[in-house]
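Support case: user asked for a sample of complex input and structure output to validate their parser. Sending the pair below.
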Amino acid sequence: MTTAQLSERIGRIYADGWSRIVATMIRFTGGDWDLAEECAQEAFAQALVTWPTSGVPDQPLAWLTTTARRRAIDRRRRASTEAAKLRQVAMREEVAMDAGPPPSPRDRDIPDERLELMFTCCHPALNLDAQVALTLRSLAGLTTAEIAKAFLVPERTMGQRLFRAKQKVAHAGIPFRVPPAHLLPERLPAVLHVLYLLFNEGYSGPERARLCVEALRLARVLAELMPDEPEVLGMLALMLLHDARRPARHDADGGLVTLEDQDRSRWDHARIAEGAALCERALRRRRPGPFQLQAAIAACHATVPSVAATDWPQIVGLYGELARLAPSPVVELNRAVAVGMAEGPEAGLALVEAITSTGRLDGYHLLPAVRADLLRRAGRGPEAVESYRAALSLAPTEAERQFLRGRLEGC
Amino acid sequence: MKYLLLVCTDPDHTPGQDDGAPDVEDWVKEMDANGTRLLGSRTRPASDATTVRVRHREVLLTDGPYAETKDLMAGFDVLECADLDEAIEVASKHPMAWAGAIELRPFWGDEE
């Protein structure tokens, strides 16, 4: 194996194994997150030293876990003050080790506690920023510096945020476990929310694409560990369907390309097929939820050969269902767009006026942008110009302003 | 773990929000019976409070509460729970979680 191949292999093992080892070590140390992470880190550092000469062991995960555990025991031996429960765990391990060479453990015997870790990182007693930071550190294995960079805060700030979050977990007694069935309906959405937020953050620009990759990876893990939760499958499907369109979302100059203008040959069609199949599998369980419905809508867009072939009445129906399950003015606005396509711009405009009169989307640039688009298609040019200008003054990113200026010129 | 359950009133509370809230007597009975509630009481209003400070070895007294907010605390309980989830479950069954708010404060503990 060449050095390049080896480091690629270790990189893969890190990506897949980091959260497994951290989770196991959190349990092993009785909830000492810092020690767990440090020992996991040292185990990987040791691998980088040993493996180039010894070769990658047959059971790398077991090798890393054993190494991390030994590190934890060594550290405790050296530490002068120890919590009693940690000492007990360490002693049991020492007895086992002194009894001769341990039976060589296999990767599949290493307990998989990533689900426990996910629910602990996303416990609603932690604020959202803390949940996101913990998830990226403990589950995705990003360094504090990498997380700080992704969220545009100084590394010190992120370090303090992580420190406080771990303190709260320990001091407030947040349990390291998967919530019992009766708590799942209120706890699972928090996990989904964090993962989807990561995905969305990563979707905002190519320089943050790493967050999308990690969010997708964690969503796959979650779907593998909770295969019977349709919303988990729905979220993974939604991520895949959005991610598949990423290569076509920006033009050569970095400008935003809307769905209707995207070059569909640049979409990742294998990914779209996977997302659409997952979405169907989820919906067959007949427990629809917001993620499944959004995935179904995304699938409607992604699985047709052209904008003209889009099944708008179907999308209108799905938005109606979504508005019933998770009512929000943004969902209403999207429904207005779909109605505008299915029944004509005037029908869409009627819905937009209704949303405007509630005042709940005041200051949201997409409200005048949608209105402008419908007016343009209805042939009401002067009014469209006025709305495009309103949208332009509210749009938060340069890419969006550029897009709106283009539309304005075409009026 | 031990938690201080601080029972707080909500000045913005509108009657009707707490329709269907559990009865406080039932709550006390249940939590005493299962060993979760170690002690607790309603507390007299802020007008009956006395605030004590020692400055330059001199005891200074103020008639009234320390915090500016009036009558925020209405009572307290001390809970023994396995973890935060259990404490949250106990707190959410308290009628004042419906009509006001419950603050859960873990005890410092003796590990550090």
